[in-house]
Amino acid sequence: MRRRSLTLAALAASTLVLTSCATEDSADSDASAGGSGASCTPEDLDTLESGTLTVATDQPAYEPWFTDDSPENGEGFEAAVAYAVAEELGYAEDDVTWTRVQFNAAIQPGARPFDFDVNQFSITDERKQAVDFSSPYYTATQAVITTAGSAAEGVESLADLKGLKIGAQVATTSLQVLSDTIAPDADPVVFNSNDDAKLALQNGQVDAIVVDLPTAFYITSAELDDGVIVGQVENSGEGGDQFGLLMEKGSPLTDCVTEAVDTLREDGTLADLEQEWLSDVADAPVLS
Amino acid sequence: MDQGAGLPQPSALELSRRAWRRSRARRSTLIGLLSTLLFAVVAYLVVTNAPGWPRVQTTFFSPSVAWESLPEILEGLWLNLQVLVLGGFLVLVVGLLVSLTRTLRGPALAPLRILATAYVDLFRGMPLIIVLYLVGFGFPALGLQGMPTSPFVLGTLAIVLVYGAYVAEVFRAGIESVHPSQRAAARSLGLDHRQTMRIVVLPQALRTVTPALLNDFIALQKDVGLISVLGALDAVRRAQILVGQSFNFTPYVVTGLLFVLLAIPSARVADALSARARRRQQSGSLL
Fold this sequence. Notes:
The structure holds two protein chains of two kinds. By secondary structure, chain A is α/β, with parallel strands linked by helices.
């Protein structure tokens, strides 16, 4: 295990200001009237079942994105966003039905059993070749978390993480940031789910794990007894990891849903929801 | 069909029969070829004219993605091979020991027999993936000094536990298939239990169960991919990571084909071994 001088990095880290949540800058409320085109109404939208909007997410659905594994209650950031989008499109709360689709099943080719899927799908150009995304409704940075007493506790720079054994969930931006930005000397340890990663962290099988920042806060505060946020990875991806609503490739809904998300962003609804559900996310140290 | 030099020429009738048989054989080969070709063409047309084919082609059979993902997947396959070789060897040892324990005679050895039976019942019944989780995340959770945390070691351990139980039953079937008269004969020659097992029973039992063992070995080849749930970067997991980056499923197809390539030699060895066993067993009875 290699340790290098911390001072320089610590200095840099302490002077850096948070760059996450980049999209909440505009609070102009003049966009709502002209935004929605004539075709984006429940009567005209070619949904799975006409008159209802079928929204999918994974089972179980995790906090702080959902609460109590029950998206129907509209609580949690993503549940709230889904209902806001539905409202923007003109669907009443009762017209929204939820279905459960595993993360990997949502990206398979072929017909899908939902109108859109909200499950922290990061938008990437490669993925866009296989599915459609709405415009981003949230920008997340990635964070490194550990347990008290682990070798990663108190680390203040990315360079000091290199000699450690770090894990992440498969097929996530967290894993990509782990292997590209942190680039540890040993192979990353890759788990099926964040639950497995957490367990391995508690067992000491890994020194730290990488998750997105809101999840990091939830895991360290509510799920781990001695969880510690080491810090967020500076500039993980360009302007962070943008989440979009996922739709079938060439879905007739893509434009309308994107328009709805844009409207919600411009009129400040998304920022309000972020404030309501993801407010603790603001102050984690930045690792560079 | 070698004819000895001293044998008389076959009759004209026999020669014409042979010619007829040859022509029939040619005919059926030809028909077989044609029908296979026809089937292939029809299957090809049906698949390629399916409405979703272009999408399936780019998502599952993209040559460029396959080529780019190959080095990464091969690197992962190396880990699978290591687990396979080490695991396969340990499975044989465990299986043999357990089956010998289960076939022990004598009332005083009852606890050993019960233990072996319980082990087999437990691990033959439990799904491998659950054993992997329990061993892979449960053992390190004990926090014992010196407990390994590497997914390679823990994954191999879980696989050996499950496959050891299967293989123990295969061995036991082999041991019990040896006719009791063999044992009786061995004992009457003055061999004790251990000698009887080693010299008389096991050699015959092993020959009987070789095809079954190789069958289990091929099953093991595929199941080593499951150690990825513990965080090991094996071929399956590397493919999964590549799929997650692009939503293109070609790396899965590549991995699947690599595993098939791995299984084919084992299948041929299994065929050859059982053919040899058949020849040997029947050669004696032809006298």
